[in-house]
């Protein structure tokens, strides 16, 4: 059977690694290529890069990072942030990424999912979702709303509806980020993760809030996630990927143990 | 020189990069002459059976591949490149290369595991492989090694003897098959970390003959 995937997320700005707490006050903590290689050696199952500059001038810096990463690590990795067209996606895939992740561009223009899936296959297209808990309303029946720009802009779009719509359009996977939990290290948003996971048939990567290995165990079992994104808990050396995997295996969760 | 066949089957650069990291001389090509002259050939790809086969035929590469196998030259199929070596694929109802008797079928639509839990299709992520018999290209891989898969269809070889590795995803399927100088894997060795690179290195060292290789 499939192993549950542990996926470190690397936020990159101007070619440098950052990690923001609630998307504010980002501090540079290193070279993304070195970090990618470190995680590869440590047994990460996949990597996610978010280009949080995403200005058009910085695009080539990111492509260079992607090329250098692809020469050194031999596991899948995805790249997201500021991809607005099939051409943007193509450039990233040709530079060596396995998958592309679209987020706000897909909210603004859902057809980009279908176009990407047609051009490269669904397995290449990850839908990134930034979600905020809101009061249940007629417009937002699930009580979870799509937001963009790190939560600063509400889209008036129900997260559950959007996840299903994106699957219909051809998204191959969902990276589900809770803005409420992001950066807190107090655990994943379990209700949201279970809700989305049980209503789509594509894999769901839980994101936002990981602080301890128990948090991963919970979201990979009760939360029904197929994979868990981690950042601060390993970036700053509180835990290693190996340690997390040992813990999960001890809890009876199937993870990849040899690399 | 290793030829990586380019037949409009998606991004092939990751295979090239993995081979380069092993110090191999390789090139992505769709030129029949170049591929015929190469000492070994890789048929990679992500794509669809219908369009993939159409491209191969248009480029005249179906014949080159048949000659490659007939000459006993090592040929490695990867993922989609593995599926089109069979006679037939349910995907797009396509007649394929026929280099190995058998067909390619889709995972069931309502796919469930032994406990009745729904299984997602495509089968995407890391999974193990149980070796069925020794093969030089699969030698030295620890039993607990896992490989990266992305696919909705899987091979159903006509003979059990073609199966060298099997993987379980709700049902057991052939994840590695071999016949003569042809070896093919359903996963992506170029994205499977160290065990994947080991498999590629084994292929680079292989003389194209079956037998040998420790289980």
Q: State Rg of chain A.
A: 17 Å
Structural class of chain B: alpha/beta
Biggest sheet architecture of chain B: 8 strands, mixed
What's the pLDDT, averaged over the residues of chain A? 92
Biggest pleated-sheet summary of chain A: 8 strands, parallel, barrel
Our Rg estimate of chain B from Cα atoms comes to 16 Å
Number of strands of chain B: 14
Largest interface: A-B, 32 and 36 residues
Amino- and carboxy-terminal Cα gap of chain B = 28 Å
Work out the count of structural domains of chain A: 1
- The residue fraction in helices of chain B comes out at 10-25%
Provide an overview of this structure.
- The complex is a heterodimer of chains A (259) and B (215).
- With 259 residues, chain A is of the alpha/beta class.
- Chain A has helices spanning 32-42, 59-72, 86-94, 104-108, 111-120, 159-169, 190-197, 213-221, 232-235, 241-250, and strands spanning 5-13, 16-21, 24-30, 47-51, 77-80, 99-102, 125-133, 144-148, 153-158, 173-178, 204-207, 227-230.
- Chain A contains ten helices and twelve strands.
- Chain A has an eight-stranded parallel barrel, surrounded by seven helices.
- The longest helix of chain A is centred in the N-terminal third of the chain and has 14 residues, at 59-72.
- Chain A starts with a strand and ends in a 9-residue tail after the last helix.
- Chain B is α/β, with parallel strands linked by helices.
- Chain B has a single domain, classed as Class I glutamine amidotransferase (GATase) domain (Rossmann fold, 3-Layer(aba) Sandwich).
- Chain B has six helices and 14 strands.
- Chain B has an eight-stranded mixed β-sheet with strand order 2-1-3-4-14-13-12-9, with helices on both faces. Chain B has a four-stranded mixed β-sheet with strand order 6-5-7-11, with helices on one face.
- The two termini of chain B are 28 Å apart.
- The mean pLDDT of chain B is 93.
- At the A-B interface, helix 2 of A face helix 1, strand 8, strand 10 and helix 6 of B.
């Amino acid at each position: 059977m499939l192993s549950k995937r542990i996926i470190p997320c690397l936020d990159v700005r101007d070619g440098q690694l950052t990690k923001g707490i609630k998307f504010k006050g980002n501090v540079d903590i290193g070279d993304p290529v070195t970090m990618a290689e470190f995680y590869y050696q440590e047994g990460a199952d996949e990597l996610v890069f978010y280009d949080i500059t995403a200005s058009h001038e910085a695009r080539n810096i990111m492509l260079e990072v992607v090329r250098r990463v692809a020469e050194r690590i031999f596991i899948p990795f995805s790249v997201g942030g500021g991809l607005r067209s099939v051409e943007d996606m193509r450039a990233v895939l040709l530079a060596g990424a396995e998958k592309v992740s679209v987020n706000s561009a897909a909210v603004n223009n859902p057809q980009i999912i279908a176009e990407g899936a047609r051009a490269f296959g669904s397995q290449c297209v990850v839908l990134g979702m930034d979600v905020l808990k809101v009061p249940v309303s007629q417009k937002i029946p699930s009580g979870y709303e799509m937001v963009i720009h790190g939560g600063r802009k509400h889209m008036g779009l129900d997260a559950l509806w959007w996840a299903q719509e994106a699957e219909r359009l051809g998204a191959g996977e969902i990276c589900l980020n809770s803005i409420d939990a992001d950066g807190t290290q107090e655990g994943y948003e379990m209700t949201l993760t279970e809700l989305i996971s049980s209503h789509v048939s594509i894999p769901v990567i839980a994101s936002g809030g990981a602080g301890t290995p128990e948090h991963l165990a919970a979201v990979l079992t009760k939360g029904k996630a197929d994979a868990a994104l981690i950042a601060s808990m390993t970036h700053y050396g509180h835990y290693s990927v190996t340690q997390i995997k040992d813990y999960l295996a001890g809890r009876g969760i199937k993870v990849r143990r040899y690399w | 020189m290793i030829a990586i066949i380019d037949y409009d089957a998606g991004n092939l650069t990751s295979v090239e990069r993995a081979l380069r990291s092993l110090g191999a001389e390789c090139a992505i090509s769709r030129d029949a002459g170049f591929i015929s002259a190469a000492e070994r050939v890789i048929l990679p790809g992500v794509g669809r059976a219908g369009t993939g086969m159409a491209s191969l035929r248009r480029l005249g590469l179906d014949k080159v591949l048949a000659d490659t196998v007939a000459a006993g030259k090592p040929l490695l199929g990867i993922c989609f490149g593995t599926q089109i070596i069979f006679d037939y694929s349910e995907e797009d109802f396509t007649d394929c290369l026929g280099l190995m008797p058998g067909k390619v079928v889709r995972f069931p639509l309502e796919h469930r595991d032994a406990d009745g839990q729904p299984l997602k299709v495509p089968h995407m992520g890391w999974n193990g492989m149980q070796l069925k018999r020794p093969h030089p290209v699969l030698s030295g891989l620890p039993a607990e090694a896992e490989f990266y898969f992305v696919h909705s269809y899987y091979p159903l070889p006509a003979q059990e003897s073609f199966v060298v590795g099997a993987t379980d995803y709700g049902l057991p399927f052939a994840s590695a098959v071999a016949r003569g100088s042809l070896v093919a894997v359903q996963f992506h060795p170029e994205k499977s970390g160290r065990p994947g690179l080991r498999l590629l290195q084994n292929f680079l060292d292989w003389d194209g003959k079956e037998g040998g290789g420790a289980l």
